[in-house]
Amino acid sequence: MKPLLKILSISACAVGMTTLSACGDDSSSHIDFEDDFEMILSKANYYYHSKDSLLVITPPECKASTLGYVVWKEEGEKADTMKAYGNGDVASIRLLHENKWSKYDYDGGKSFPVGIWSEPKAVNQNIMNGKRFKKNDVVESIFRYEGDCFASSLLHQLMKKNEAIEQADSALAKFYMMFQPESERTFNAERMMDDLRAPKCNKLTMYDGDVTIGMNNFTKSSGTITLGYDGNSCNIKFELRTAYDEDDCNDAFGDYQSDRNPDPTFVFDKYSEAVDYDIYCIKRLVLDMQEEKKILPRMQAGEDDALADDIARAAVKFVVGAMRTF
User: Fold this and answer.
1) Which of 48, 55, 260, 310 sits most deeply, having the most CB atoms within 10 A of its CB?
2) What is the pLDDT of residue 309?
């Protein structure tokens, strides 16, 4: 698929505007994992000129300058420019200089493109991502769940049906392989998927149930991941960041600067969640795993903090990263 159209490449179903606006509007309302819920993953500005059906989506910019400081712009230099028009409950869109049109389910009002854009609903599809075009010229990427047991749907539908999740560089694979001895660390997608379980609607397990990942207190922009091992557990709170917010951009760059093992280049998406946890709790879990199962690498004095941070952030990416996949 062409890069410009990826912004509207969404595995979703069109749902009523009333239902969508009722879910997740109050950030203090906790999500029940046996009910529908929605989370806002990112935002961008857009412009639509109805006379010539021109749609321009301009994502924000959050990057490091060549001199090493953070650069933020609500509208970055790169924009996605397309032709788009609505016809009843269908939205059609194509790249500006191409002839091939793509069609999406459209649930909106009289002011196109305002409303929800999504791919036609697939049979038994509970997990979906979509775009909400708002009247204030802001478009939101939303994660939407419509089912009765989130953990089971996340496991069987999202992870098993999306090939990207099964790659060794996915957030799921990286987290899974953390719990293998370094000398035996190999990636086997089939074995990983066979090992994952969803015993409860808010809990996943791996390695025959030794490692548990609980999901609690989710709102439209935050939540708690509970990492457990051998009866002990640690809470890892997270809050979603968007590059559209200048403070979120600055905070993500601050995390990059504090990272003990940073990548050569700052990438906002790697730090798109603010993570808060008890480092001593995580270190205790890590030590238990190292001593009893001989898994996780043994670190030199002072380096165990970095390992604990890697584990905490990877646990969040394990869940939230799956939501950002599409």
Assistant:
1) 55
2) 85
